[in-house]
Amino acid sequence: MTASVLVINAGSSSVKFQLFAAASPDRIELITKGQMDGIGTRPRLQAKNAEGRVLVDQKWSANEVGSIQGALDRSIPFLREQVGGKLPAAVGHRVVHGGPDYDAPVLVDDAVLKRLEELAPLAPLHQHNNLAPIKAVQRKHPELPQVACFDTAFHRGHPPVADRYALPEQLYRDGVRRYGFHGLSYEYIASSLPTVAPEIAGGRVLVAHLGSGASMCALVAGKSIESTMGFTALDGLPMGTRPGQLDPGVVLYLLAEKRMSADAVQDLLYRECGLKGLSGISNDVRDLLSNPSPRAKLALSYFAYRIQLSAGMLAAAMGGLDGIVFTAGIGENAPPIRESVLRRLEWLGVEIDPASNAQGGPCISTRNSRVRCYVIPTNEELMIARHTLRVLQEHRTS
Description:
By secondary structure, the protein is of the alpha/beta class. The protein has helices spanning 68-81, 110-118, 127-140, 160-163, 169-173, 183-196, 198-201, 248-256, 262-271, 274-279, 285-289, 294-318, 328-333, 335-344, 354-359, 380-397, and strands spanning 3-10, 14-24, 27-37, 44-49, 54-59, 90-95, 106-107, 146-150, 204-210, 214-220, 223-227, 323-327, 372-375.
């Protein structure tokens, strides 16, 4: 029997969604995908079917759609039309932080929702926004099963030596540990490798999820063993507006010498640093690639340099390297960034094929390259749909 599953990925001013028809977790087909963006400013609902045909493109005033609830009120009727007026069998949500309690997707109830709200300080840009649609659906359709799928879960199998900071044991017990993020993306890539790149699927693969948020993951035989992100989504690579790896002494300096409040420091680190802070121009790689200014070039060079350093670290954690995969917005769509990174990694045995890279791959290394390099589009929403169906099936048989 085929059921529909709605997947929601909510941000601060947008709600992305995909609606799937599913006979089983392994037999899922896209019905429609789209988003409501500009919430509270210039709300616009856009969606296409699986073939790419536009199904809706509608705008409202800021007053008409000023919240996540308002966005869902406008989007749900459209989505129900796509499946004959019925509600979906379940709704799956991306939730950035699962903390120490959740190492797998979970059916949401009041107790789960309360615990996830308590984790908001660990992901202040994301957690409240991720939870808002769960609450909105819960208010209007309390009977509808909802499943939270965590960006941290895929990394929870790390060995203890990779999981800890050199801090007192009690802090670890309190949940201060290295979680890693973008796990849904890495899990999808790991599931795709046997089909797209079978020669490296069972080996040591470095995956670079490069977008507005950016991180890298070391996969060995499809399992995460190390990641550049840690306790929060601030760590590791520089990002659009986040600094990445930072000496903790910088934070102490800002608090003690610059007399900044904790809230001001948080706002600085999450919204004013990264490519935006370095360039003084933009947090968008497309803007920086088209800008000839020295600061734009510095920001992009720094981005590639830090990826190079992290690649060496992750290769060391794996004891070698068989493959590299680029994914997410920058990783999939910015050939100059990929080339800049791979040129810096020639010492690892990388040999880039410039023509294939310019065309977007999927394989962008030469036949002689000791390390195979790929571009593989990620699909976090499909991963969430699979998890949602499995949780639903387990719940019904328990």
